[in-house]
Automatic annotation (TrEMBL):
Its EC number is 6.1.1.2. This is Tryptophan--tRNA ligase. PANTHER family: TRYPTOPHAN--TRNA LIGASE, MITOCHONDRIAL (PTHR43766). Keywords: Aminoacyl-tRNA synthetase, ATP-binding, Ligase, Nucleotide-binding, Protein biosynthesis. Belongs to the class-I aminoacyl-tRNA synthetase family. It is an enzyme of class 6 (ligase). One of its GO terms (molecular function) is tryptophan-tRNA ligase activity. The keyword Cell membrane does not apply. Gene3D superfamilies: HUPs (3.40.50.620), Tyrosyl-Transfer RNA Synthetase (1.10.240.10). InterPro entries: aa-tRNA-synth_I_CS, aa-tRNA-synth_Ic, Rossmann-like_a/b/a_fold, Trp-tRNA-ligase, Trp-tRNA_synthetase.
Length: 340
């Protein structure tokens, strides 16, 4: 959905990332770009989901720890402004864990096992029968994240829609139990532009697949990545007609080239035959170098003063915690957990 500015000024957004690695162009297209826009239109909370990241990284907590700051640098580099968006660290808000513990009683194990996102991720991670209980229940933790801020809009990729459905089930159950609308139902905000494929043509750009272009990539890394971008395997000679479907060079140009007319001319020439991949890739490289240069420079600038970035995260976390604590008080009061 595309929400209009004036109509939805009062909406609250909660979104987040698992800090398990540097962010890349896929994140830029799928979420970061929109967050820069949303921060002017909505009350926006952006969470570094380090506790959730541990549900499948408990063997490597240092990775999660170190990437909290790296992802925060990516946020700042793309233009997320901590005076407009509240950026915070999930693990530093114990109320989120507390809410999770209560909500766990509103969900059955069978329902969690049926969650399509969880089912898919269990296969991807080869958990088989050894599913960490924390992993199986992370949708409940995600419901806690969303409801703690009474978020009505949750920008997520398509794969996260079952999480939103599960959250709303918890909200409805809780409110029925409380006989009062304490928690707020939310709506997924799915980006109009679909997922960006990896440079190898695989459906998803992903660190674990090694097919990304990172936001902090150096000019040489960008150049090498573009050289390896999957195009049309049937386009052997320059004179051969080329195909645009599944052609990653053109998919990226569609996402980043603002000169739509020039791009269309190039597409026509390519499909007719007589245009080499190297020309298409040169155009793509120029666009990506221009896009990423200021992001990389800002990132390097912020990285010089990590203390200042940590301070920003601390302030954001304090502000977020106040909101989460207020909701937690309401939740506890509604279920008989207020004694003094
Ligand atoms: N599960 C999300 C992901 O894997 C990250 C996340 C955690 C999140 N809590 C959230 C997203 C709450 C939106 C709202 O990307």
């Amino acid at each position: 959905m595309q929400a209009s500015t004036t109509e939805n000024k009062n909406h609250t957004i909660l979104t987040g990332d698992r800090p398990t690695g540097p962010l890349h162009l896929g994140h830029f297209v799928g979420s970061l770009r929109n967050r820069v826009k949303y921060q002017h239109q909505y009350q926006q909370y952006i969470m570094l989901a380090d506790a959730q990241a541990l549900t499948d990284n408990m063997d490597n907590p240092a990775k999660v720890h170190d990437n909290v700051l790296e992802v925060a640098l990516d946020y700042l580099a793309v233009g997320i402004d901590p005076t407009k968006s509240t950026i915070f660290i999930q693990s530093q808000i114990p109320e989120l864990t507390e809410l999770t513990f209560y909500y766990l009683n509103l969900v059955s194990v069978a329902r969690l096992e049926r969650n399509p996102t969880i089912k898919q991720e269990i296969i991807l991670r080869n958990f088989e029968r050894d599913i960490p209980a924390g992993f199986l229940t992370y949708p409940v933790s995600q419901a806690a994240d969303i409801t703690a801020f009474k978020a009505s809009l949750v920008p997520v990729g398509e794969d996260q829609i079952p999480m939103i459905e599960q959250t709303n089930e918890i909200v409805r159950r809780f409110n029925r139990l409380a006989k009062k609308d304490i928690l707020v139902e939310c709506q997924a905000l799915v980006p109009e532009i679909g997922r960006l494929p990896g440079i190898d043509g695989k459906a998803k750009m992903s660190k674990s697949l090694g097919n990304t272009i990172n936001l902090g990539a150096s000019p040489a890394e960008i150049k090498a990545a573009v050289r390896n971008v999957y195009t049309d395997p049937l386009h052997l000679r320059v004179s051969d007609p080329g195909h645009l479907e599944d052609n990653v060079a053109f998919i990226y140009l569609d996402a980043f080239d603002e000169d739509k007319i020039g791009l269309q001319t190039m597409k026509d020439h390519y499909t007719r035959g007589g245009l080499g991949d190297s020309v298409v890739k040169a155009r793509l490289e120029g666009i990506l170098q221009d896009l990423l240069a200021p992001i990389r420079e800002r990132r390097e600038e912020y990285a010089k003063d990590r203390g200042q970035v940590l301070q920003m995260l601390k302030e954001g976390t304090q502000k977020a915690r106040e909101i989460a604590a207020k909701t937690t008080d309401e939740v506890k009061a509604a279920i008989g957990l207020k004694h003094f």
